[in-house]
Every structure is written in structure tokens, then in C-alpha cells.
Amino acid sequence: MNNIKTLGELKLSGYQSKSIKDELRHNLREKIRSGKPVFEGVYGFENTVVPELERAILSRHNINLLGLRGQAKTRMARKMIELLDEYIPVIAGSEINDDPLNPISRFAKDLISENGDATPIEWMHRSERFYEKLATPDVTVADLIGDVDPIKAANLKLSYADDRVIHFGMIPRANRCIFVINELPDLQARIQVALFNILQEGDIQIRGFKLRLPLDMQFVFTANPEDYTNRGSIVTPLKDRIGSQILTHYPETIAIARAITEQEAKLDESQSDLVYVPSLAKDLLEQISFEARESEYIDNKSGVSARMSITAYENLLSTAERRTLKSGNDKTTLRLSDFMGIIPAITGKVELVYEGEQEGAAIVAQHLIGDAIHTFFPAYFPKIEKLEKQGEKNAFSDTIEWFYASGFQLLDDCSDAEYQSILDDVAPLEILIKKYQPQTLNEDRYFMKEFILWGLVEYEKLSKDRFENGYQFKDTFGSFIDKL
What we know:
Elements: H1 7-13, H2 20-34, H3 49-58, E1 63-66, H4 73-79, E2 87-91, H5 106-115, E3 121-125, E4 130-134, H6 141-144, E5 146-148, H7 150-156, E6 166-168, H8 170-173, E7 178-182, H9 189-193, H10 196-200, E8 218-223, H11 226-229, H12 236-241, E9 244-247, H13 254-264, H14 269-274, E10 275-276, H15 279-294, H16 306-327, E11 332-333, H17 343-347, H18 354-359, H19 361-380, H20 397-405, E12 408-411, H21 416-425, H22 427-436, H23 445-458, E13 462-467, E14 470-475, H24 476-483
Parallel strand pairs: 1-8, 1-9, 4-7, 7-8, 10-11
Antiparallel strand pairs: 2-3, 5-6, 12-14, 13-14
Helix pairs in contact: 13-15, 13-16, 15-16, 15-19, 19-23
């Protein structure tokens, strides 16, 4: 088809025009029939958001994706490009992507009237058929719809009564395309009103011109719940004109959250080769986001974006990478103490309530890491009871007693050999792993040993103190005496 260069050749080819909504619908039907995944690379929505989005497309609806930040709303909209035809014909030089078989602009109609079947056409790839606008309070009707251009009128020596003096805005220029408006409630109410005609009647009006442009568009809006934004709302008549409103959500399981993080994290090959990351470390990282969404210190109405886990994972590997480069080693295994390096990735991603502000963002981040360890610990080792009978031994008694005699320090930048030697000195840790986690991989054993220590700290059986360049682990009584 790309060899076709004129309107006459297009007619002879038997090409049939169809609206963008019919185009999306037709291609979606074919994908569903073939059993191919429609929205690849979007995890956790297979049984919730994706079916609703498919139904909306089959219904030829304009769509509003409603959800908290970091819930893949814009990604879903961008994925819709893959449901468009690979190429479509447009009148060469048209500002609004006129269909050669159904022109709507004066420019295209005049060109066809003058050249007939010799009218030149171009082919537009689907990657060029996606427009995106972030709604901000300073957006004007002229930006979106268009306005009279006095410079054009002067250059062409035209009267303001001539519709050729119109400068089209973003929406007309996105004719036959997917047009996304992000954060719709931030758009001023009077600007939202300007969208009424486009959504319902499919035409635009500019500065009183008797101009009817039946635009062919697929609108996708994204918005946070109105009770969170407080900066504005979607006006009711506009809501009424949007065919389907689809609610998005955060990952519901650790496995899904891990898949998203591993897909989105920007790591180079050398970094991945340098740092080995135990599976437990990846799970702990995702659990931090789950803890944050339930934390009393964080405003749950604002949400905790999936970007937090992604940037935290990048920081986590960079922490281990930096430590390894300083020690001169070629490879390393991630340590639990490396998790302190993700605090900057957490503090900028959460909205704190009053109690959280009083604690401080960095302290809240440390609480979240501790809460994740506290949640995971019983899944790997016996439950630690808060109250125990005097003198009664449990699975961790030998480990705790070891710290009565001595404590130890884990320095942030100690070499792998020193790190392993320090943990090997605590002999009861190896016994615990052999008894309760015998399937632990050799390369994961030292992370698991450190996990036991941090878990005992979270359950108040050991104490952990931060000093300038590392951590000191002691029994709780010795730590209390030191503080006195």
C-alpha cells in the first residue's frame, strides 16, 4: 500500500476508509480471536482492567482511566496504539490528517477539487497517531481547539472572516489519532466545557466561525480520584459524555509487583552481572510498597506509586555496586544492610500524614523496611511469641544467648570475605537455616543469616544500633545498659 502515491491509485486499490474506533474494534476482535495477548507488558490487570478496556473498545467508547498514581494508566493508553492499522493514507500537507476518501478540511477539499485523482497522498504510521497532553491550569481553549491567527491572516492577506486564518489546536491536529489528556480534573471547568461538542457531536467551533469539522478521534482520559486531588473535578456533563470509566489498581501480589519492577528497572548489563540479588531480597523490596499502602504514617488517599519499588530496586543495586567498586571485588551478593540505600527512593515517593511528618520521612522509610521484615519473618522461621515463660527455650535461644557473650559490627563497606567471616562466627545462624530453610541456595545463605538477625531485632529479641559507617548488633539488655 505504501507504493500508492495519489488519490486515483488509492481508489483503484479498493482501500476502504474506517473510523479510528472501528479500526481499534476490528483489530481487537482479530487479536482476541487469535488468542494473542492484547496488552503485553502490563501485569496484574489480566482479569480486571484489561477485560473492561476491551469491552470499552468494542463498544467504541471514549474512555476515562481512574486510579491513583503509578497504576499504569498512561501505559495502558499508549498500548492502544498497537491496535491501530500499521499505516493509513492522508492528504499530503494536511494539518489535520485528512482522509483522502473523506476529507473534512477546506485545504484538503480545495486540493482535491484542483488536482482530482492526481492529489498526492502520504502514509502515516501508527506510531505517529498518538497525542498526549498533561492537563494543567494554564491550558487554554486555543491550545486544545484552535484560534484565529493574525500573522497568518496578514501573510496571506486574508480577512478575519475567512476560515483559512484559523490555527488549529492540538485536538484537530490529532484527527484520526488517539488523544490522551492526563490528569483531567486539573483542567479548568471552562476548558472541560469546550470538549462537550467534540465528544458528543464530533465537531469543533472556533471564534464563532460556521465551521463544522467532524473529527474522528479516540479520546482516553486519565484521572486520580477526585477526593484525592482537591485541585478540581471532572464536570458532570463531561463525565456523562465519556462512554466508559475504568478503575485501575495496584499489584495484588508480590509476584506481580516483582514482574513489574524487573521489567521497568533501568539496569545495565554490567550492573546485573556485578550484583547477585537473592529472591528473598526482591520479595522484601516489594513488600515495602505493600507496607507503605497500609502505613499509619502515609496518606493512603495519595497512593504509593509502583515507581517507588522500581527506583528503590535501582538504588538497591547501586548501593551494592558502589560498595563492591570501593572494595575492588569483581562480584558481590546483595546484603540486607544495603536496603538502607533505598531510603532516598522512598522519601520522595510518599505523602506523609501529620504523624509521619512528626517522625520524619527518613525514619518512616526505616519503619517500612522493618515492617516488611517483620511481615516476612514468620513465613521462613518459627513464630516468635511476644510473651514467653521465664527460662523457656525456643528456636532462637542459642542465637540470642550468643549475643550475651559478644556483639558484632557490620560495616557498610566491608569486603565480602569480612562480611561472611563475621556472620560465620555466629554459629547458631547456620543451624537455624539447616533446620528451617534447608533448601536455601548457597549464594543466598549469608543474606538469610542477616535476615534472621534483622528479624530478631524487629521482634525485639536483639537490638540494632546505627553508627557512623555500619550497624552494631547486641542483646537487648546490653544495649539498654549501654544507653544508661
